[in-house]
């Protein structure tokens, strides 16, 4: 199994952390995580993709161990920092895989810097149009909990997510809580997604696209058909039983789906 190597790159926001696996001379794949997770979402996926590719999972600016540089959070800003990481690593063009928030960043990366993105894998990615923005504005915060002196807010954070995670896999929720506690503003990623005008950007995407639908993810599964409508070159692959933590819930199925797509690109 390939060794995961972790490092920092000095970018405009400060130090940005990433983990990489595989032959540095192999075709590169950039993996972008959901909010408020980190590269760790792909810990089990990296060696599987790294067996055939140069797999790189970055911490989005302001998440995990990456600095945010004091720059306001936005999908556009996070995509710019991802492009800076490609520059720093000497990568001219990459296949880009994004899960949830990571998929939204991947859309912007492909729209803003099309020459840098060979293909897109959009896993459990929402379609953020005006209807989405209105609906999200009326909903309570997804992960925000009021701090408590006795630590009960930690249990509250766990319980808010529990219904969207598979039963009998407490280690997945532990990984989520660890990442959430490292983020200064736990709702920042969700707010950035909720304000992104994806309907104005999808028309710029000409790259091949795979939409991965986790069938048991109530947030994302309904968006797959909407995305495909706006990305006619895209096809949808279902991962049965997949939930919100798909990459670390079902790493083999996730990696296999990604690699099958990449290896059949023209």
Q: Please, could you describe this protein's structure?
A:
There is one protein chain. An 8-stranded mixed sheet has the order 1-2-4-3-5-6-7-8, sandwiched between helices. Helix 2 crosses helix 3 (101-112) and helix 5 packs across helix 6. 36% of the residues lie in helices and 18% in strands. Helix 1 (46-50) links the parallel strand 3 and strand 4 (54-58). It has 266 residues and is of the alpha/beta class. The model has no long low-confidence stretch (mean pLDDT 95). The protein has one domain (5-134, 188-263): Alpha/Beta hydrolase fold, catalytic domain (Rossmann fold), CATH 3.40.50.
> What's the N-to-C terminus distance?
28 Å
Low-confidence stretches: none
**What structural class do the secondary elements suggest?**
alpha/beta
Largest sheet report:
8 strands, mixed
| Element order: H for helix, E for strand | EEEHEHEHEHHHHEHEHH
Mean pLDDT over the residues:
95
Arrangement of strands in the largest sheet: 1-2-4-3-5-6-7-8
Could you please say which CATH topology applies here? Rossmann fold
CATH architecture: 3-Layer(aba) Sandwich
CATH first level: Alpha Beta
Strand proportion, as a percent range, falls in 15-25%
Helix fraction by DSSP (H/I, runs of at least 4): 25-40%
Domains (count)? 1
Shape, per Cα inertia axes = globular
CATH superfamily: Alpha/Beta hydrolase fold, catalytic domain
Q: How big is the Rg?
A: 17 Å
Number of helices: 10
Please tally the β strands and state the result: 8
